[in-house]
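Hi R.,

Here's the chain you asked about this morning:
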Amino acid sequence: MKLLKQLFNFYINSSIHVALSVYSLTWITILDFDIPYDESILYFNFYATITGYNFIKYFGIAKFHHRSLATCLKSIQLFSLSCFALMCFYAYQLELKTLMYIISFGVVTFLYAIPFLPKHFFIDSKQNLRSIGGLKIYLIAFIWTGVTVILPLMNNKMEIQSDAIITILQRFLFIIALMFPFEIRDLQYDSLKLSTVPQKIGITKTKLMGVLLLILFFILQFFKDELMFNKSVILLSITTLTLVFLLVSKKVQGEYYSSFYVEGLPIYWIILALIFT
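And the predicted structure, written out as tokens:
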């Protein structure tokens, strides 16, 4: 039982779970636009997510405690290095135009963790994009939307037309709403200077905002040129489930409430899509 617990914690802490969510959202885009299974972009997004998230989470720890790293963290470092190599392998198979956009997302991810601007821009001494008050949630939503919608379309030479623009907006709204349970949980840890949504408007209004975003997320589906009954039912299911997790979320959560259950909603979404589409 202890071994299973350790393996599960490694699964969460090494960002495999969040990478599966990004993989799932990318695959959903591929299915929605009738694109053949694109192994290159799917696997690139999976390994790039692990590489990027672990870089952001553990950069500071590895920098200052390199010689005294715990065994688990060393394992995550080695695992991340392997994922970086696989990310490069699949990047080599992508379209040149796709790679140019990936570089821009990579730069944003890098600046999210690394100090690069004068201190007066930031709420603390970290001097990275993560520390700019109020920016975090929108930056993450922007990156996830670009990676899971724009990149698969671009890599398959699809034009960004009206349905794609609606999908981009939907994905942005969904990811913001999906992050609210994390922001509510982090109220007990975040500096007040971060100006997160729950810090600025409170938990109740944050949930109300999330409800409105999810309603808009679902309604936008009916403005698409191609509307399928199965996809609408699946979207309603995901909207409802996300709504429930948002409304039930609280400041003091179970250990895996957000990091596993909420983060895993895109995985549930792709399972439904594969079964019923």
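Confidence is low (pLDDT under 50) at residues 120-125.

Let me know if you need anything else.
M.
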